[in-house]
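Long-time lurker, finally posting.

We've been working with GRAS family protein (Selaginella moellendorffii) and I want a structural starting point before designing mutants. I don't trust myself to interpret raw outputs, so I'm hoping someone here can both generate the structure tokens and explain anything notable. Sequence follows.
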Amino acid sequence: MPGMIKADSASPSEASISHSLLSLQSSSPPAAAAATTTATATAPAPPPSSEERGLRLIHLLYLCANAVASNDLQHANLFMEQLSGLASLTGDPMQRVATYFLEGLAARVTKSWPGLYKALYSTRLSSDSDIAAARHILFSVSPYLKFGYLTANQAILDAMQGEKVVHVVDLEVGGGNSVLQWLALLQAFSSRPEGPPHLRITAVNEKREVLALMGQKLTESAERLDIPFQFHPVAVSPAALERDMLGVKSGEAVAVTSLMQLHSLLADEKEDGKVRGGDGGGTASFGLALKERSKSEPGFVSCKMEELKESKSGCKRSRDALGTGFNGIETNGRDDSGLELGIGVFPVAPREAKAGTSSTISRVLQLLHSLSPKIMVVVEQESNHNGALHERFAPALHYYSAIFDSLDSTLPQHSSERITVERLIFGQEIRNIVACEGLERMERHETLSSWKRRFEQAHFSSSLLSPTTAVQAERLLTIHSPDGYKLHREKGSLILCWQDTPMLSVSAWKA
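Top reply, 14 upvotes:
Generated this for you. Predicted structure of GRAS family protein:
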């Protein structure tokens, strides 16, 4: 994809990099190796730099993931102990993201003992109000949610020019912040030169209290703006939707929006008669799986450490070590104690998902196509966190380290608000990606190219987002961080990037 980080032509040689990596590994020996250190050492080693620590964390996370996937609890415990000493909830972005990946790996291990798992995590459940508060903070300090709301609203306004009766279907309202999206749309419709349409909003959410509050606020606002308005609540999950629940009537111009929700409908998708991701590589080692993949797929390559670029942030250089296209780090097949691990290389990127033929996602897309929408706007995370654990681990680590890096541009290192957002939103997503399998794993993000195939198979055609939408999105990103956030245009769709890492895609479709 254009905009990806390129290798630095002035990078050091592979030999010198290998030497540096070996030095880095030996600078922080594990407990087993530390026990053999002689008493003749004259002085303690200096603390590692942020870059060295970041590379060390990445290396240990990969080794730990391999041990967990191979059910090698002895080495998993050893690596977790080392990771615990380097990770921190209030450290730099790589330290913080490592904390949540470590928690996810630990949760994956304890899931083998359901009683132990429930006992350990029963007090970590978050209330709806806590999550709503975290989403409100995220809305305030970053462009991620605003980007989705703004682009969806502008796409609807463009598609509904001249329409007198408009029906908007929101596939999964996200609480209080979703109200802000529709309040903005009401305001925009009220100022149309030809006057506002008769507007009907259908909101889908399993929680009736969320729908009731949303309906009250939107109805009051519509009355103040003198807009003919109806609110239609549907108290089910998107997976349980039926066409007659939506109440679409003849003569209505229909718009559908989905903000980071469609990926949760992929959990039951079947390939070759099996639920995808059901085994998750829980018993087979990364090394074995990757060895087989590397024979047939050239995309599975070792990470070239020369691809590290100079930047102001040691964390960014560490994050770049994950690869310019989600490359992996090559290890020497041993941990720092010299024990054989058989890890080989980590994947560049998982295989693009194949759309299933009998799944919730295909059924829901067919249902939505039957509504004949003038436009459907889809906002999704722009990464591939699907497939077995060895396929999704590296892309997820790259993606979330970029998110944590972006939060540093607006929130101080020791900010309680930043900890709240990372713990209740992104930390929960990481744990679900790393620890869960089968129907329990809801965070199954896919890239725009994958969604394009799905929509085409459901007989949708692409609808180009207008230049006005792109201009407004660029303005929003400039407000938040003119040097950090970037907008990439791809064949009529928009991709929000942090520096050079794609984060969110917005695409539009029509029946």
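Before you design anything, note these points.
Confidence is low (pLDDT under 50) at residues 1-40, 271-275, 277-314, 323-357.
The radius of gyration is 24 Å.
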